[in-house]
Amino acid sequence: MMRIEDREQLFENPAGEYRGRPFWAWNGKLTEEELLRQIDIFGQMGFSGFFMHSRTGLETEYLGEEWFRLINRCADYAAEKGMEAWLYDEDRWPSGSAGGMVTKTEEYRASFLEMREYTAQEWAEYPGTEKDVASFAIVFEEGDMRKVRPLKLKELPEKGETAVVFGIIRAECSDNYNEFTYVDTMSRPAVEQYIRLTHERYARECGTRLGESIPGIFTDEPHRGPLFSVFSGGKETAVPYTPTLFAEFKKRFGYDLKERLPELFFRYTGEELSAASRDYIELCQELFLENFAQPIQNWCHENKLLFTGHVLHEDSLTAQTVMQGSLMRFYEYMDYPGVDVLTEKNDSWWIVKQISSVARQLDKKWVLSELYGCTGWQMDLEDYKQVGDWQALFGINLRCPHLSWYTMKGEAKRDYPASIFFQSAWYPEYRNLEDYFSRINVLMADADPVCGVLVINPIESVWARSRSGAFRGLESVREGINRLEERYRDTFRFLTDNHIDFDYGEEDILARHGRVKDGMLCVGKCAYHTVLVAGMETMRTTTWELLEEYREQGGRLVFAGEAPGYVDVQPSEKVRELARRAQQIPFEKEKIVSSCSAQQIKLTGKNASGVAVQMRKTGQETLIFLLNMDRDHAAGKVTLSLEEDGYPELWDAMSGKIAACVFRKKDGRMEIPLTFAAGEEKLLVITAQCRPCPKPEKHIWEKISCLPEEYEYQLSEENICVLDMVRVTLEDGRGLPCCEVLKADRELRDILGIPWRGGEMLQPWYEEKKNGIPAEPLTVIAMEYRFEAEAVPRECSLVLEDLEHVTGISLGETEIPLKAEGKWLDTCFDRISLPSGCIREGVNSLRITYAYYKTCGIEAVYLLGNFGVRLDGGKKKAVLTELPKRLKAGDITAQGLPFYSGRIRYFLPDLEKGLYKIRVAGTNAACVRVIGREDALIMQAPYEAVSEDPQAIELVFGRRNTFGPLHQWPAVDAAYGPGNFVTEGRAFRDSYVLIKQGLLKEPVIRKERKEAADE
Q1: pLDDT tens digits, residue range 780-816?
Q2: Which of the residues 76, 122, 600, 914 has an alpha carbon 20 to 30 A from that of 515?
Q3: pTM of the model
Q4: What are the contacts of 255-263 at 24+ separation with CB within 8 A?
């Protein structure tokens, strides 16, 4: 148990175990020098390690000799730096195919059991295949079955019958698996081959590093195959299949699934739930765990590695059903169980509550989240904080930020941006964020949750409702399943909004780890005084028996809403009879809250329900984490009331400082007044003894009016002009019309007869290994980029990538030497100085000749220099102008800086020396620095900083307006990936679609009133 003094010391300077380890995207031609340079940058950013992750664009052969040499060199160098180098078990994702090497062997490939319907005439002509499993004649009535009978080949259906055949098909080959398929994760031989090709190679090549400088391995999105869904290569008329399926089904469930296949895909009229559906999904779950999760965990333990990562797909009961069954059951077999929380606005908060429940119950200290995926270049540090905050609140303490690119070359720059790395202008400030979350992890570490409520997880009710046509992608289109999802969401919100902590109880885990002792329901190391059943239609016999014993011992058993009318998906009154003997209430917020509350902690105030709370106990201290879940609005004044004695302290995770906290005693309870800005957190420690803590400083501020209409300013980088409209001419004289670069690239590839580039394209390493390095290009193309100049810059540089395949550059009549004079932002970008005088007033034509290979691509190029840029012609045409001498408060994209993405320092007028509070809100910058005697960082509401003798306000921008997407309409999307850069139709604009940024609101400056402060 950690002493308060040790916790305080760690809080100020968190050790490596509490810090994040990002996904490090190995996505180009890897070199030792560059890899080691990047490891140093990880350390500067506050990370304590990294996951070495093959991504789209990898040129170094995956699992080749050089790959392992670099893995070992990075592990050794990380160890020298006191960092951890973690392995990743796949070439891209999902884990299991070893970059297609496993599924070269056909018997290891993923398969499906497909349903096909035939008319009587079609059936008469159907020849049958050896892959057919069973056939039936079915009378359908409004999509449901009224009558079913077996049907033999060549036996004609009767009038009104439809012939339905169930047959086995292989998954289709895909470039995502390097021309092969995903693996059959329910097959032990297939998974053993995967382990031989991947894990055992690491054991041989990395040797004694395993368990030392290489602590573990990450598995990413393995699954048992999509169920009734087109997601991940499936079909709405198919379910996953493995060769042992029917034999194992009969052995475990006692009946022949072949005879009841129609009940898996359809329903009899008047029936909604199917035991065949539930049992089939249960079997797939068991086979996936037995043949994938457990063997890999066992191998890891035998080889001294920790097993971590996440499986597919967490966000809803439906998503879990479609891709796996119940994710909670996989977490049992991971040392550091993990989740994947995609996008910025994901409010599926139960994702983390599910995994933290299993971690608490089965005593797993570290819970990982792969977070920030699909969030885009426009994310600011406050957004990163807020996405991480709620996950930390509910139990995430091992952060795996997605994504840090080795390079931005080619398609890699569109691989789910942004890059949380040196390519972003704000990367030096990012350390503040890692320090912040590390301190939260320190505060909540080695402490017991104050949690006495267990909510039975109702996912098997969704299983029982699963059928063909129930899902579109990962979402349900069936009213019954949607109703279950709504109840699940509402139960979570009712409890969380009313500050009642709870865990989920997964029925299979309850069956194996649950017991009743002294009137408490115990699951692993946790004990619960209240059990809530809500939004559930079918219950396992084992769960019913456990709850019967729990009620008999006096446990508080609550049924909210209608009790389940099925046991093991068979109609039964058992659970309803139990509900009548327990506490049965309507499914209403007030009733549920009243039945589950222990009144240990209360929050009052107008917006108190928006503040979530977690409480821990350790020794004589109580640890409390409060968070305003509303990212857009302040919660204002809130009073925290506790059944506690002691002395509260406020621990500031941003600064690492500790201050005394105002409180009072009322009616035997401690009351602490608090205020919350939008998305703000508070960390409190209640100590048994009063400790000397500084009190918050008091200041009286007076607003002053001193800001100019226009600011003198300074750019940290040269200005940028993006050139991404191109006219392409092939060597045979054929020309493509001027269009956006990626559209031109796709049109060229169509002409050449090669696949488009994209996130799931063939890996370059595989292309080279299979076909070698071609002696000649597919073609040599001429690319013409045009821009106008109203003012000619004195100095200007051209930035482009893949210089090794460029055969010539000319600007107007001037030939440009193919000599790079350095890099720009990333190692893929070469910078070439343009000779003086080659840019002229009017229209300029930049012509680049390019040897085009299959692994190449047409990309944007960039002009750099001390010029301004104006967008004319409806924001379709870039015109070089003079840089503005001063900047106004407002959007910089209309002030000569439409594509700029570095830092801008706005200089303040000469201020009288003293202490100032400066508020800078509404910038769309990643963060803000106030430059003074000591720089102060602003990255969250209320967007204020105190600064002595401030001289300037510095905005640090994201790279959205440089790297895009620049033509997507509308500009803001829910998620960002490769597809956002190649939109079509109404989602595409020829004009530039930019994010406004700059001092969009006037800063507010207040000066300390000395005389009042001295009083």
Answers
A1: 999 999 999 999 999 999 999 999 999 999 999 999 9
A2: 600
A3: 0.97
A4: 258/133, 258/134, 258/166, 259/134, 259/150, 261/113, 261/115, 261/133, 261/134, 261/136, 261/166, 262/136, 262/138, 262/145, 262/148, 262/164
